[in-house]
C-alpha cells in the first residue's frame, strides 16, 4: 500500500502562486486603506475643519536634569591603564 498523500490540484495552485497572491492582497489592502483615508480627509476638509499642527507639550524638567543637561562626560584627568587580563584569574585559582 502506498501511504504517500497526493497534493490536490487546488493546493498545488496555491503553493505555486503564493507570492503573487500575497503581493495582490497587500496591494488591495493598501489601496483600500488609502481610499478610506482619502475620503475621511476630503470629508473633514469639506466641513471646513482646520487641522492645526499639535505643539509639543513642555515637559517640566527637574533641577537635576537641568543641571546636567549640557554636561559632557569628559574627565580632565587621564585614567590609569587597565591591569592585564590574566592577572586576576591566576590569583583566584
Automatic annotation (TrEMBL):
<keyword id="KW-1133">Transmembrane helix</keyword>
<dbReference type="Pfam" id="PF15050">
    <property type="entry name" value="SCIMP"/>
</dbReference>
<keyword id="KW-0472">Membrane</keyword>
<keyword id="KW-0812">Transmembrane</keyword>
<dbReference type="InterPro" id="IPR052133">
    <property type="entry name" value="Immune_Signaling-Apoptosis_Reg"/>
</dbReference>
<dbReference type="GO" id="GO:0097197">
    <property type="term" value="C:tetraspanin-enriched microdomain"/>
</dbReference>
<protein>
    <submittedName>
        <fullName>SLP adaptor and CSK interacting membrane protein</fullName>
    </submittedName>
</protein>
<dbReference type="GO" id="GO:0001772">
    <property type="term" value="C:immunological synapse"/>
</dbReference>
<feature type="transmembrane region" description="Helical">
    <location>
        <begin position="18"/>
        <end position="40"/>
    </location>
</feature>
<dbReference type="InterPro" id="IPR028181">
    <property type="entry name" value="SCIMP"/>
</dbReference>
<feature type="region of interest" description="Disordered">
    <location>
        <begin position="68"/>
        <end position="93"/>
    </location>
</feature>
